[in-house]
Amino acid sequence: MIPGTFDYHRPASLHEAVRLLADLGEEARPLAGGHSLIPMMKLRLASPEHLVDLRTIPELRQIRQEDGRIVIGATATQQEIIASPLLQERLPILAEAAHLIADPQVRAMGTLGGNVANGDPGNDMPALMQCLGARYRLLGAGGERAIAARDFYQGAYVTALEPGEILTGVEIDPPPAGHGWAYEKLKRKVGDYATAAAAVVLTRSGDRVATCSIALTNLAETPLWAEEAAAAVTGTALDPDALKAARRAAEAIMSPASDGRGPAEYRVSVGGVMTVRALQRAYARAATQA
Amino acid sequence: MAKSQVTMTVNGRSVEALVEPRTLLIHFLREQLELTGPHIGCDTSHCGACTVDMNGLSVKSCTLFAVQAEGAEITTIEGMAAPDGTLHALQEGFRQMHGLQCGFCTPGMIVRAHRLLQENPSPTDAEIRAGISGNLCRCTGYQNIVKAIQYAAAKLRGEEIREAAE
Q1: What is the pTM (predicted TM-score) of this model?
Q2: With contacts defined as CB-CB under 8 Å, which chain B residues touch A1?
Q3: Is B2–A5 a contact, with Cβ atoms under 8 angstroms apart?
Q4: Taking a C-beta distance cutoff of 8 angstroms, is the pair A174, A269 a contact?
């Protein structure tokens, strides 16, 4: 399979990349790791006339701390997320989830920015970003803005990203030390998208859940932040009734398609199972006082 | 559409060429450089038969434009054996331990395993299976591939090799 023709641009700076995208107009697309875009181009489902390569812009690749906040550049790869000591310490859920994405070769090229900006409901990082309350930094010819991951997704492949805008990175206020985390993903085989997956971050106060955030992958056209499911366990000792209530609340907002991964009823049911498992594992991992 | 100049080092040799930007790295390697070791299997970044080493990372060359490899150091299966033809420990391991049947996946398997052993010279069997999870083999059931990689790991660690294939 051979993609359609295009012109290739390798800007030296972020400024130049934004200017190129503005000048070239709607037929130009930014290229990061290319592991979503290139397969689409090979199938001729995408045929941009211009590709603007972001991978060689050093400032887009950094993973750093900024006033207690973690900032991950858009072209940091899944492999770099797994290997980052800073993320292992402050946001271990990211490496846990990145390990479940595709395979080693794909993780070496695939980027966080591409994963979250593409709007593919099968991608894992968008739900994590919603779970963590991340903000996306967007840069266009008109300037920079930030948008919450919880407000970014509008439908399958439809996001708040305006034409000509680049997602330059994500910023996350890390949960406190001692928080519990888990990403539970059911998939048919290595490299598959989730049949259903759930991300949980919580803190404890003794036996009680003090704070909790839950988000779901591939159970609707967008990632889902399951606010009511989290509220159902907050203040509880994660007893069976609380888990049942959280499961019910999570399942109530799911609307997966029936596809090769199973009929919708099955996917909702295992979505509930993933939610329960992620809650239990995060709870067991959390220190009793975060 | 303008052609682009690319410069890269492939198996230690400096290469300069003009390519269409849409040229995939696998096509550049196979058709322009005549390195037909990396195979086109699924052509959808699942099977790993096209795996090459790029700047110390295993990548699937069917999902990469040649222009993205500008300035890169690339190693393919053709770059594994010594210049005098002496097989690399991994090639020897695959032969000794019957790590292949049809051989189609083998170039990708060996190049991937090479990187894996750089990252982890003493992997467990489970770590090998996770490490080659992006490479599909439809013949062997992986059993002997794992043994072949363990054979090479032991040899590269300087240990004496005794175990023969069953």
Answers
A1: 0.95
A2: 43-44
A3: no
A4: no
